Structures are given as structure tokens and as C-alpha cells.
Amino acid sequence: MQKKVSSGRVIRHPFHFLGLSLFILAVLLSACGSTTSSGSTGSPVTSPTPAISLSLQDQGTTELHTFQQWIALMQQYHGDISVYQGQYTSDQQALQSAKTETAYKQALKQLEKHIQAIQLPAMKAESVYLQQELQQQVAAWGQKHTYHDSYNNVTYPLGYEYGPNGIGGWVQQELSQAQTLADYQQAIEDLNMYLTNFQAMTTNSSDKTPYDQVHQTDIQLLQHYGYMNDKVVVVSLGEQALRVYDHGKLVKAFLVTTGRPDKPTPPGTWWIEGKKSPTVFKAGVPKTLPNGSPNPDWYPDTPINYAMQYHSNGYYLHDSWWRNDYGPGTNYPHADTSGDPFSAQGSHGCVNMSKDNAGWLYNFVQLYTHVVIY
């Protein structure tokens, strides 16, 4: 409703403005409600994108777990973890406090450097621990278990093959030359092998089973190394005996002579590296020492009928036709019934056997046939 006034202007009724204001307010309220109403048919609202992607966070979690495992390994083998534990805590806090992907990646890069840095010290700590464990076990065993040689009235510690003149010396040299992660990994693998075989030797020492029958320690070693489905030559140093298995079945056994105390036969898991029949062994050292005394490592050129190399540096399974006697005690100084002076002590590290037994073994083994010595 409008009414005219003398000035000619049109005056709007106050209620018209009020209605318009209420209409605008209703529209605004309706618009505001449309973004929160569950029944709205408007466009969906998405959550804001996180500053650090979930995949990157997962990577950080994985790397922290890896670092933690290396620290635990080092601690297990009595290594000093104080520095690395502090780095772990710092890295964990840096990842948690990172606000951007750039900052997170920088913290992750630092974490990866710390993981790389701990690996060599951790592996070294493990290898040193295992070396000490082997040394302690061998020394303790040798003190309680000895062989008194009535021939020269000398008492020898049993298990000398694992001592300083044998595997113990090999381990020391291996660790002194180790520089890379692969070097220490190999040393650790070797040490675990030596410890396994040494424990088998000590266990077998109380086994009264005859040498030419299956021994439980043989089977346990074959199972441990996964050799049950293969041909395997087993040499028992304590028994001075050799047993041959084919797929876990004993097919042959006979007595042997192994390395003397200062030239022991190396225990371990080896394989046939080569075969020669016939061949000639040469000492490769002078007959006398610089002071003119006889060289104990010298021997005349010796024809061999059957030679099977099981380790580099001249370690063979072979016939020793100059010997008459084999078995317990023949690896120490003794009087061989042949009367040959070169038969009066153990070998230089080879495994000696009769010609007939060597011929049989030569025909049985092939390249890569397993050789377990314990």
C-alpha cells in the first residue's frame, strides 16, 4: 500500500523492509545449513590432505624398526649401544615432530645413515663374541679331556683341532683381515659352523656306539646342514674314523689317521674340490731349516694312488700306503708297525687311509660331494 505526499516521492511501508530482511536471513540460514545437513544433495566436502603421506610415514616406521633390530643384535653380543640408542631416540623424535614432507625426508635420511653406520660394528661385535665363545669352550674342554701319549710321555688336550694351531688360528686370521660387512658375515657363518661341529664332537665323545655303525651325532649334523638327501663323507676326529652316508644311510666305515697336534685336520663342512689318481705329493719346503736342523714339514716326493682334495692349501683324503696302523692314537706320536719313520705320527692335516679304502672312496665321491669333519 502506498500513499502520496506533497513532494511526489514514494514512501515504502516499514513492514516491506522487515519482510525483505527476514527473507534474506532465511536464505542465508538455509545456505549455511546445506553444508552440514546429512540430507543435503550438495557437493561432498573432502578432508584436508595430510602434510606427510602415509606411505612416507610407513617407511619411517619400518626404518625405525630396522634400527631397533640392529641395536638389539649388538646388545645381544655385548656391544656398546649407548651412542646408537641415543641416535634412535633422536631420529624417532625428529620424525614425530616433522611438519612437512621435506622435513620428514631429511629426518628419514639421517635415520638411514645411522642404520648404515651401526651394521659393521654390530657384525664385528657378534663375530668377536662367537670367537671368544669358541675359545672358551675349547679351552675348558681341553683342560678336562686329555690324551696321555705313553710313546713320548706327553699329555695333549683333546679337541686341539679347534685350538690356536687349528681352526682357532684360522678364525683369528679371518677376523684380523675382515674389513667389509661381507667379510664379517662370512666369519660369523664360519664361527657358527665351528661351534656346531665342536659341540657335536664333545657329544659324540660319550657315545659308545662302534665306529662302523651309525652315530646319532652324524645324523644330527646331516640334518642340521641339510645333507640327508646327498652323499656325505663324515670324519670323526675323536674316533679317528670315517663314515660314508648316502641319503642318510650308512654305506661304508673304516679307521683313518688325521692331522698331528701341530698340523691338525681342519674341522668344518667342506666338499670334494678335485680328484687325482695317481699323483705325487711334494713338500714344497726345504729339507733343512736355516740353522741346519731338519725341517719337520719336509717329506720326500710321495706317490699317491687316490687323492681327493677337500680344502684348498693341500688338504686331501688319500691313501697312505706307508702306514700299517689307523684309528685312535695314530694322530699322535706312536710306533707304527710298518717301522716307517714317517708313519710315527699323524698327518700334516690330510685324512690318511689304506689304499683299498681310498680306492673305494675315490670311486664313490664326485665333485662337490660333502665332507663333514668334527
Write up what this structure looks like.
Strand 3 and strand 4 form a beta hairpin. The chain starts with 13 loop residues before the first helix and ends with a strand. The N terminus is likely disordered. It is elongated and about 85 Å long. The longest helix has 44 residues. Strands 5-4-3-13-6 form a five-stranded mixed sheet. With 374 residues, the protein is an alpha+beta fold. The relative contact order is 0.09. Helices cover 42% and strands 15% of the residues. Among the domains are: 63 residues, no CATH class; 161 residues, Beta Barrel (L,D-transpeptidase catalytic domain-like), CATH 2.40.440.10.
Please tag this protein with its features.
disordered N terminus; 5-stranded mixed β-sheet; 374 residues; elongated; 4-stranded mixed β-sheet; L,D-transpeptidase catalytic domain-like; alpha+beta
Q: What gross morphology would you assign?
A: elongated
Task: Report the helical percentage.
Answer: 40-55%
* The first-level CATH class name of the domain at 213-373: Mainly Beta
Q: Which fold name fills CATH's third level, the topology of the domain at 213-373?
A: L,D-transpeptidase catalytic domain-like
CATH superfamily of the domain at 213-373: L,D-transpeptidase catalytic domain-like
- Compute the number of helices: 8
* Amount of beta strand: 15-25%
Taking pLDDT < 50 over at least 5 consecutive residues as the criterion, the unreliable ranges are 1-47
